[in-house]
Write a structure and sequence with these properties.
globular; mainly alpha; 530 residues; five-stranded mixed beta sheet; disordered N terminus
Length: 530
């Protein structure tokens, strides 16, 4: 091979590789293939978390805590749907990390499938619909963070994707099944996150710009469907109404008083830009990637006129995004917020639909589409690889090491100390969620947590001992604290005859010491802790 033929040969190989990718993406764009791919992808994530990273994140521990029973409200920060899902799954498979993982990865896969379905309602080109659905991996908080964190927000985005899909489908072909599905989506979303009802309201108001959406959603049947969904979700909201002051106090802590701004927010202009700044950070790296790939298409002159479905999406979601910005900015101004956490912007997950609606009506440029989809697919693979690699990271730096904590070893140590059944009072922190992780290996227990004091699980049919646990490496002062301070679950301090101890165990898969587990065992039980 000469120097003159090398570029041609290299170019030929690259073209053949791109053509294979194109055929793969063309196959993947069919509904069944995409659904199988989404389920397969998150099944791999499930296996990684089940066998490589056997500990839990804080959100997963929270879900395992809620799996102990049903409640109108588990905490004042979110409606109860995630907890209800956990209680339902646990009733089938028992206390397990799989309770949280099935819900997490099931919701992520369902969201992807629903976004693909919504895109197919608008875009005739199958590659465009695939690009829209895979754009979710361009959101850092979905593509990476959601593999380990967040639960209630995943309920929100799944309900939101379903809502948008059903509204678009009803505009094209109204049906009784579509209205019934919309009612279910509204109920599911309203029970998943307090931000869903105002987002839904913006969708309904924005529907006024399109005759087909207006005819469907502002009709008697459309309004009845929405009202039915809200009525199904009403009981927890009524309960919140009875405890409104407490709910407002929690909201103030989460949104205003408990938030430390990253930079000084002083005037009106700073607060007007606060929402845009948070939204822009949330949409990374999707926005620059989309601009790099398709800005030339968007700016092209002499484009064919958009078909009604695409014009509908432009007007509807364009106004919807503006209404969201206006409502969020009004909230910022009214409350004096100085920071808006990026994950609150999960409400923007349908944004790729709007971005692609602004492209020309013609099918996507073949190679730009292949490159765009290939990059997103690469990001998805990198995320799974990084998830598996998290084990090595945590073994090097065990400052938190939540995902490699030796919970099985701790449970065996507690059995040797004489605890097998009863109530675990868990002093939890951002670094430790001991109670629910111990319960995975001590199934005849119930857990109460000082981090989620609102939720009190049902009493055990066969009461047992009382066990207080904490992270003794990070919080060694807890032992002295519980000797003198009243614990609500015990009805007083830990009694003098309690047996105090400390269990040490290496992190899963290494000899690196994990944080020690401190415990106080009250064999006869005390108060409601038994």
């Amino acid at each position: 091979m000469t120097a003159d033929t090398l570029p041609t040969s290299t170019s030929s190989r690259a073209r053949r590789f791109a053509e294979r990718l194109d055929r793969l993406f063309n196959w993947l764009a069919t509904p069944l293939s995409f659904a199988l791919a989404a389920v397969s992808y998150y099944s791999v994530a499930f296996l990684i978390r089940s066998f490589v990273l056997t500990g839990s994140s804080g959100d997963e521990a929270q879900l395992m805590l809620y799996g102990q029973g049903f409640a109108w409200i588990y905490d004042f920060g979110n409606p109860p749907m995630a907890g209800w899902l956990a209680a339902l799954v646990e009733s089938v498979i028992g206390p397990s990390l799989a309770v949280a993982l099935l819900i997490r990865y099931g919701l992520l896969a369902l969201f992807a499938v629903l976004m693909h379905a919504a895109a197919r309602e608008v875009f005739e080109d199958r590659r465009t619909a695939l690009a829209v659905a895979l754009s979710a991996f361009g959101f850092w908080f979905y593509g990476w963070e959601a593999l380990r964190n967040y639960m209630d927000s995943l309920v929100l985005i799944t309900a939101l994707a379903g809502t948008v899909w059903l509204m678009l489908r009803s505009a094209r072909a109204p049906s009784v099944a579509g209205y019934a599905g919309l009612a279910v989506a509204v109920a599911f979303g309203s029970l998943g996150k307090f931000s869903y009802p105002p987002v839904l309201l913006c969708l309904l108001v924005a529907a006024g710009v399109d005759p087909a959406l207006r005819a469907v959603l502002w009709s008697r049947r459309g309004l009845v469907a929405v009202a039915a969904g809200l009525a199904l979700a009403a009981p927890p909201y009524i309960w919140i109404g009875w405890h409104f002051e407490r709910w407002m106090a929690v909201a103030d802590t989460r949104l205003v008083s408990g938030v430390v701004p990253e930079y000084e927010v002083t005037g009106l202009v700073d607060r007007l830009l606060l929402v845009l700044d948070s939204a822009g950070s949330f949409a990374l790296p999707l926005l620059p990637l989309f601009a790099l790939m398709f800005l030339t298409d968007m700016a092209r002159r002499g484009r064919p006129p958009a078909l009604p479905a695409r014009r509908r999406l432009r007007r509807w979601l364009g106004l919807w995004v503006f209404l969201l910005w206006a409502a969020a900015t009004a909230l910022v101004l009214a409350t004096g917020m100085e920071k808006l956490r990026e994950h609150y912007m999960f409400v923007l997950m349908p944004l790729p639909l709007l971005l692609f609606a602004w492209l020309p009506e013609a099918p996507l440029h073949r190679w730009r589409a292949v490159t765009y989809i290939g990059i997103l697919g690469g990001l998805a693979v990198v995320a799974l690889t990084a998830l598996a690699g998290q084990r090595a990271v945590e073994l090097v730096d065990c400052s938190k090491c939540r995902l490699t904590m030796p919970w099985h070893g701790y449970a065996e140590g507690l059995r040797e100390a004489g605890f097998e059944r009863g109530t675990i009072v868990s002093f939890d922190s951002p670094y430790t969620d001991a109670g629910t992780n111990l319960r995975r290996f001590l199934p005849e227990t119930r857990v109460v947590s000082n981090k989620r004091p609102q939720f009190i699980p049902p009493a055990l049919e066969r009461p047992g001992a009382c066990l207080v646990v904490w992270n003794d490496t990070r919080y060694p002062q807890t032992a002295d604290h519980i000797r003198i301070s009243t614990l609500a679950e015990i009805g007083g301090p830990v009694p003098a005859d309690a047996r105090f101890g400390r269990i040490e165990s290496p992190s899963v898969g290494s000899g690196t010491p994990a944080p020690a587990l401190g415990y106080a065992l009250i064999e006869a039980g005390s108060g409601t802790c038994r």
